[in-house]
Amino acid sequence: AESGYLRYRAAKALGAVGADFDVAFPALLKALKDDESESVHEAAAEALGMYGPRAMAAVVALVGRLINQT
Predict the structure, then answer these.
(1) What is the pLDDT along the chain (70 residues), one digit of tens a residue?
(2) How far separated are the first and last CA of the chain, in Å rounded?
């Protein structure tokens, strides 16, 4: 549980500090697609949203996740 919290905080921090897109995007996309924690998914999606149109590739991952939830 502690490591999930740390991954959640890391995703939140990347969005909050406006980390370099080229560094942050791959990590956030991986968290969105592969992490087992829903809170990490939410934090990664929120952080990706902070990057605006540059993060459009994440939409595919978001849609895939929503489809797999139903």
Answers:
(1) 679 999 999 999 988 887 788 888 889 989 988 899 999 999 998 998 888 888 887 777 777 777 877 5
(2) 25
Dihedrals phi, psi of 35, to nearest 5 degrees: -70, 145
Enter the tokens of residue 37. 């924690």
Note the helical H segments in the chain: 2-17, 21-34, 38-49, 57-69
Report the alpha-carbon distance of residue 54 to residue 29 in Å, rounded.
12
- Looking at residue 9, its amino acid is R
Q: Which amino acid is at 20?
A: D
The rounded distance, in Å, linking the Cα atoms of 56 and 53 is: 5
